[in-house]
Specification:
Elements lengths: L4 E6 L5 H9 L4 E7 L3 H10 L4 E3 L2 H4 L7 E4 L6 H10 L3 E4 L7 H14 L3 E3 L7 H11 L6 E9 L4 H5 L14 H17 L3 E9 L10 E8 L4 E7 L9 E6 L2 E6 L2 E7 L26 H16 L7 H20 L3 E2 L3
Parallel strand pairs: 1-2, 1-4, 2-3, 4-5, 5-6, 7-10
Antiparallel strand pairs: 7-11, 8-9, 8-14, 9-10, 11-12, 12-13
Length: about 350
């Protein structure tokens, strides 16, 4: 049996428990260290999870040769900085979404990770949902035929108090955007992953309609895929009380629709009694980020461990994780310039 890998978590905020709980439940992993620039947060987190090694400066933590993997759970605009430091220290990486907040910064992260020869797993836990896997398989097998419409409705609720709770929330510099970059990025990644086609054109509108923040709290976008079909993205944090994310994919031969609570439509021409797959566990988080399930994190962290031992790519390497962020940046640009953009990466 391979030895246990020592994990360290940088950033002891809202998402850190999903990482800690997952690591604690994986036999091949050990939560070895935690780090936060706020000593009280680091100390409290270490006490809760019975961790002996506590740091208040990630640069000092990176010098610890016992650490094998670093989980990056800091504000979005610092993901690249921490990930690059981990790679240069020879440590593998689990990075929360988004990997970074601009195409140029993502280029830099990928370059450093590849030069240093470490593994990097990016967190898009919705890809582990049974419903999403079944939909991707159905599309890949041609059950829907040519895709004509592929829609993601990402209607979250985040109060003004949520944005006021941390200086980085709702800022371009550290959050990278609003409803799309922070919350909606999960659904955008999932939609693109399921459809499996490149996006050729983007037209969008994004605005700040309900919150006192620098970034958007409401956005709508139209995509055109390389196969000619259209996609619709509605992303917001301004609708009360927050609703389950919903995906509707229509092809010339059929339709699949699902949300967080299950599959709502699974219909194909010529198949009067299709076998509807089990949707599995809901990941939650529509109205409260603290209620996000850690099930997907468990799967992705365990996969990284196996990727390290087997010397293979993890499920979501950085080159694949960048696509949703590239699309979001194009949406922002389209809205600012009030024009349709040709999209290429």
């Amino acid at each position: 049996m391979s030895r246990k890998l020592n994990f360290a978590i940088v950033g002891c905020g809202v998402i850190a428990p999903s990482h800690a709980d997952s690591i604690k439940n994986i036999e091949e992993a050990r939560l070895y260290a935690v780090c936060d620039i706020v000593p009280e947060k680091a100390d409290g987190f270490a006490k809760k999870y019975m961790v002996d090694h506590v740091y208040y400066d990630y640069r000092e933590m990176m010098k610890d040769p016992a650490i094998d993997v670093v989980c990056v759970c800091v504000p979005s605009g610092i993901h690249g900085e921490i990930s690059k430091a981990a790679a240069r220290a020879g440590k593998h990486i689990v990075c929360e979404k988004p990997m970074e907040i601009t195409p140029e910064k993502m280029d830099d992260v990928i370059k450093v990770v590849r030069e240093c020869g470490v593994k990097m797993q990016c967190i898009f836990q919705r890809r582990t949902m049974n419903a999403a896997i079944a939909v991707k398989k159905a599309i890949g097998e041609g059950k829907l035929g040519r895709i004509v419409l592929a829609d993601a409705y990402l209607k979250y609720y985040r109060s003004q108090e949520y944005y006021n709770s941390a200086d980085w929330r709702g800022t371009w510099e550290l959050d990278g955007g609003g409803a799309l970059m922070n919350q909606g990025v999960h659904g955008i990644d999932l939609l693109l992953w399921m459809v499996g086609e490149k996006v050729k054109k983007v037209f969008a509108k994004a605005g700040t309609l309900a919150r006192k923040i620098d970034v958007e709290d409401t956005a709508a976008a139209i995509l055109q895929f390389e196969g000619g079909g259209f996609g619709v993205i509605e992303g917001t944090t301004s609708v009360y009380p927050g609703f389950e994310t919903r995906f509707e994919i229509h092809g010339e031969k059929g339709t699949v629709i699902f949300d967080d609570s299950g599959i709502k439509a699974w219909k194909f021409i010529g198949d009067d009694a299709p076998e509807v797959p089990d949707a599995g566990e809901s990941l939650g988080g529509a109205s409260d980020p603290a209620k996000i399930s850690s099930a997907g994190h468990y799967i992705l962290i365990k996969d990284l461990i196996e990727a390290i031992h087997e010397d293979r790519e993890p499920m979501i390497p950085p080159e694949e994780a960048r696509t949703a962020v590239d699309i979001i940046c194009a949406i922002y640009k389209s809205s600012r310039e009030n024009r349709e953009l040709d999209f290429q990466i």
